[in-house]
């Protein structure tokens, strides 16, 4: 039960946009119910410095029957209320999931950088990737993807406006909980 009049900080991570959509819906619901809500992207926030006097919401997807390393790291870095002399704090968590992942990480290992055309040079993949796995290579005049840091959140795949990013041989459908513009605005 959240105290009315309190501020609510919802820290979210979303790859394909489902969790962001839920977090935005929560924001509308809580705001119209009299709360002040701040939506904050996990990857842009320092977990160790969050204000525990506010209600804390955590919203993230289930991934590989847990969640992404980026989310675990965020949770591990949260301050300990006990150490700060806080006896009571309000925390809630929202997960989105698909029940079973279907082994999506396997096909993602075969992600290909981009098709040559169509090529909008929007660099949304680079700007929105939480792990900085995309970079623009001037010599080759194309985006290059580095596998090592990729957490397979599918954000780049989902938000590419011209579906230039593909992976595996199966024709996966591009899904977006919210538009590329909204995602870009939230994160940048
Ligand atoms: C790499 C990866 C792993 C996933 N693993 C699971 C899983 O183990 N169990 C599950 O129910 N859903 C799994 N999913 C599905 C996501 O939890 C679901 O699509 C979620 O709504 C994605 O949220 P997002 O759009 O905010 O990124 C996985 C999705 C991805 C991309
Ligand atoms: S490169 Fe990997 S980590 Fe970056 S947005 Fe794409 S799937 Fe997510």
Structural write-up:
The radius of gyration is 18 Å and the shape is elongated. 24% of the residues lie in helices and 20% in strands. It has 2 domains: 7-96, 3-Layer(aba) Sandwich (Rossmann fold), CATH 3.40.50; 105-179, 2-Layer Sandwich (Alpha-Beta Plaits). By secondary structure, it is α/β, with parallel strands linked by helices. Strand 3, helix 2 (69-76) and strand 4 (91-96) form a beta-alpha-beta unit. It has 6 helices and 8 strands. It has helices spanning 18-32, 69-76, 105-108, 124-128, 155-159, 180-187; strands at residues 7-12, 36-41, 55-61, 91-96, 111-112, 134-137, 142-145, 166-167. A 4-stranded parallel β-sheet has the order 2-1-3-4, with helices on one face. Bound molecules: flavin mononucleotide (FMN) and iron/sulfur cluster.
Please give the structural blueprint.
Elements: E1 7-12, H1 18-32, E2 36-41, E3 55-61, H2 69-76, E4 91-96, H3 105-108, E5 111-112, H4 124-128, E6 134-137, E7 142-145, H5 155-159, E8 166-167, H6 180-187
Parallel strand pairs: 1-2, 1-3, 3-4
Antiparallel strand pairs: 5-8, 6-7
Bound molecules: flavin mononucleotide and iron/sulfur cluster (SF4).
How many beta-strand elements?
8
What number of domains? 2
* CATH class division of the largest domain: Alpha Beta
In CATH, what is the homologous superfamily of the largest domain? Answer: Flavodoxin domain
Structural class, by secondary structure, is alpha/beta
What's the Cα radius of gyration?
18 Å
Roughly how much helix do the residues carry, as a percent range?
10-25%
Distinct small molecules: flavin mononucleotide, iron/sulfur cluster
Query: Could you give the order of the helices and strands?
Result: EHEEHEHEHEEHEH
Percent in strands? 15-25%
């Amino acid at each position: 039960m959240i105290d009315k009049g309190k501020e609510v900080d919802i820290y979210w991570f979303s790859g394909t946009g489902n969790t962001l959509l839920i977090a935005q819906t929560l924001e509308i619901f809580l705001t119209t119910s009299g709360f002040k809500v701040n939506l904050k992207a996990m990857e842009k926030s320092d977990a160790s410095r969050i204000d525990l006097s506010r209600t804390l919401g955590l919203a993230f997807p289930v991934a590989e029957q847990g969640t992404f390393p980026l989310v675990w790291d965020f949770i591990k870095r949260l301050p300990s209320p006990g150490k700060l002399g806080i006896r009571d704090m309000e925390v809630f968590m929202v997960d989105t999931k698909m029940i079973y992942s279907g082994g999506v990480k396997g096909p993602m290992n075969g992600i290909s950088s981009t098709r040559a055309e169509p090529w909008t040079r929007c660099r949304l993949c680079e700007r929105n990737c939480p792990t900085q796995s995309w970079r623009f290579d001037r010599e080759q005049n194309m985006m290059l993807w580095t596998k090592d840091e990729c957490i397979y959140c599918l954000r780049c795949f989902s938000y590419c406006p011209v579906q230039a990013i593909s992976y595996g041989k199966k024709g996966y459908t591009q899904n977006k909980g919210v538009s590329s513009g909204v995602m870009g605005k939230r994160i940048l």
